[in-house]
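Pipeline run #58 for the internal structure catalog. This entry was flagged by the ingest filter as a single-chain record with no existing model, so it goes straight to prediction. Upstream metadata was stripped on purpose; only the residue string is passed forward. Reviewer on rotation: M.T. Logging verbosity set to normal.
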Amino acid sequence: MIRWFMLAATLAGFGFVFTTRSPALLGVGLLLGVGGFIGFVLALAADRVSANSRPDTAMASPSELAAMRKPVARAPTARPPSPPAATRPPGPKPPG
């Protein structure tokens, strides 16, 4: 909702800039226009980020994070390790 107020401030500020003959109103209009435009862009970015963020309830708690960081103890396997695979002898070089 605030982005629409910022857009209105931008348009009003630039409207003052293009219609005034006073240097003071020109400065105020420029500040209002540029400030409103920057606020409008930041408000759009904030809405975009909040639309794509995860809710707080979906995030892991500190105790869950600590549990995930613990190393997992693996059960010993009963199967002995397999021998290394045999390597093929190099073949003849291709012609050329």
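catalog note: The CA atoms of residues 6 and 36 lie 5 Å apart.
catalog note: The two ends are 73 Å apart (CA to CA).
status: ready for reviewer M.T.
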